[in-house]
Write a structure and sequence with these properties.
This protein is an all-beta fold and about 210 residues long. It contains one helix and 13 strands.
C-alpha cells in the first residue's frame, strides 16, 4: 500500500527542493523568462529611439528608413519610420500597399493577435536580427559644375587645386585636361589638403562604401 508523507524542510534562499534518485536535493532557482511578449514589454518601457516589434524580443532601434523587412500579409516591405505620437507607430510599405502596426508589430492592438512583421520571409526570429547601420551622407561628385573650384588627385599623388570641367568614364577632367581619380570641392573644409596626400574629410570620400 502506498503512503503519502509530508515533511517540512528549511530551504536556503535561491534554492528549490526536488526529489532526485530517491532522495531530496537542493537545486539553484533559474530565473524564468517572461511568459508573454506583453509581460516583457511591461518591464522594458518603450523609449524615443526604439520600437519593440516581435514576440522573440526583437527591436527596431535607430533603424534606417528604407530597410527591407517582411510581412506575411503583403510580402516584402520597406521600413518607413516610427511615429511615437500614434498608437500604431510602425509604418512599412511596398509598391502597392502599406501597413501601420503597433509597437508589437501587430495589425490590431489585441492580446490574441500575432506579430506580422519579420526580418525576412525565411527569418522570423527577431532575436537573430541585426539592425543595419544608417549610411552617412556623402558628397555626390555628380553635383560638380564646369568651372567649380576643386581639389583633384591621381592615385598615390597629392591633391591639386584646379577647376572642374567634365567627367568621362568615371574620371574627372579638369582645366589642364588631365583625368583624375578623385575630385572634391575646394572650400574651408578641404583647402588644407592642397599639396598633400592627406585623407579627405569623411563626407567627401564618396569613393568609399
Amino acid at each position: 500500500m502506498k503512503q503519502k508523507i509530508e515533511i517540512e524542510i528549511d530551504v536556503p534562499d535561491g534554492k528549490k527542493v526536488v526529489w532526485k534518485d530517491g532522495k531530496v536535493v537542493f537545486e539553484d532557482i533559474v530565473s524564468g523568462l517572461p511568459r508573454t511578449w506583453m509581460e516583457f514589454c511591461d518591464g522594458h518601457p518603450l523609449t524615443a529611439d526604439e520600437c519593440y516589434i516581435g514576440e522573440t524580443c526583437g527591436i527596431i532601434q535607430n533603424c534606417p528608413k528604407g530597410t527591407k523587412l517582411y510581412s506575411p500579409v503583403i510580402g516584402e516591405v520597406t521600413f518607413e519610420g516610427v511615429d511615437y505620437n500614434l498608437n500604431y507607430p510602425i509604418k512599412v510599405s511596398n509598391s502597392f500597399d502599406g501597413l501601420v502596426l503597433t509597437k508589437y508589430g501587430k495589425y490590431l492592438n489585441e492580446p490574441d493577435v500575432e506579430c506580422i512583421l519579420f526580418p525576412s520571409k525565411d527569418q522570423r526570429d527577431w532575436s537573430k536580427w541585426e539592425c543595419p547601420k544608417p549610411k552617412k551622407p556623402k558628397f555626390d561628385p555628380k553635383t560638380l559644375q564646369p568651372f567649380d573650384r576643386v581639389l583633384a588627385r591621381v592615385e598615390f599623388h597629392g591633391w591639386f587645386a584646379t577647376w572642374y570641367s567634365h567627367t568621362i568614364n568615371n574620371k574627372m577632367m579638369c582645366d589642364n585636361n588631365i583625368a583624375y581619380h578623385y575630385c572634391i570641392p575646394y572650400n574651408e573644409e578641404t583647402k588644407h589638403l592642397v599639396g598633400t596626400t592627406k585623407e579627405a574629410p569623411e563626407y567627401y570620400r564618396y569613393w568609399e562604401e
